Amino acid sequence: MLFSLATQDLGQQTLNRIAEFALSSQLDESDQLSVDVKTDPSLLAQGKLASLTIDGEGLVMQKDLRMQKMVIQLENIAVSPIKALTGNIELTETSTGKADIVLTEADINRAFNSQTLQEQMQNLQMQIDNDPVTLDVLAVECHLLPQGAIGINAKIKIRETEEIQQTYFTTIPRVSDGGRGVSLNNVSYAEGKELSPKLTEALLEKARSILNLSNFEMDGISLEINQLLVKKGELDLSAIAQITKFPKP
């Protein structure tokens, strides 16, 4: 993290403003974003920041993925004391803390129905009742259920017949890839709503890509999920956060 300050007054408010600007440059948009740096000149002279808290709401990341809330908390951050005293702050070692992320049904559905993903869900070559067909996914609805499952309801158009059908299934999310992603297991179909296993896998793959942790990361900040909780209408992710540098504006 490298901040060039016009003066040697390294007050917390100055650091906060610079940090907020740097972080906001990594986002497409945000409803609210604040950064709280705890430090003082004597700590900086020792090469330390006491803590850094990033608190945001309505953060829109790449691929049109929105987070209802994200809080990252880091403590005992090591910086270069010589550079700090001359008006620059630079991390000298990786700092580890924790992150909490909240996604709502609306956030996930926004990503599922974004233009990018919709383009990828057209012209799908499938087998239905042993007949080759071409499917277009018209819309996807994701439901976060109170029993800890995710429900996916998709409206499908069969090009050959122009028939509109629906498929609905539930799946159980689990932390996977060493905390880098989410696996979706134990698929269960609603009666009469199963179309094609290949279509189900295509929908699951898109859900997995939405929940891939790289979507939530910023330059210099990495996350590793250690817990997830599905509640009615809400998905909560707890993660280990590591910062090697601060995003540059």
Question: Can you describe this structure?
Answer:
This protein is α+β, with helices and mostly antiparallel strands. The chain has 2 domains: 3-104 and 213-243, no CATH class; 109-210, no CATH class. The chain is 20% helix and 48% strand. The chain contains 6 helices and 13 strands. The protein has helices at residues 12-24, 41-45, 81-85, 105-112, 115-120, 197-210, and strands spanning 3-4, 32-38, 48-60, 66-78, 88-89, 95-104, 124-128, 131-144, 150-158, 163-176, 181-189, 221-231, 234-243. The strands form 3 sheets. A 6-stranded antiparallel beta sheet has the order 2-3-4-6-13-12. Strands 7-8-9-10-11 form a 5-stranded antiparallel beta sheet, with helices on both faces. The chain is elongated. The termini are close together. Residues 1-10 have low confidence and may be disordered. It holds the Pfam family LmeA. It comes from Dactylococcopsis salina (strain PCC 8305) (Myxobactron salinum). This is DUF2993 domain-containing protein. InterPro entries: DUF2993.
Oligomer: single chain
Radius of gyration: 22 Å
Query: How many alpha or pi helices?
Result: 6
Strand order of the largest sheet: 2-3-4-6-13-12
What level of helicity do the residues show?
10-25%
> How many strand segments?
13
- Rounded mean pLDDT is 84
Unreliable stretches covering 5 or more consecutive residues: 1-10
- Structural class assignment: alpha+beta
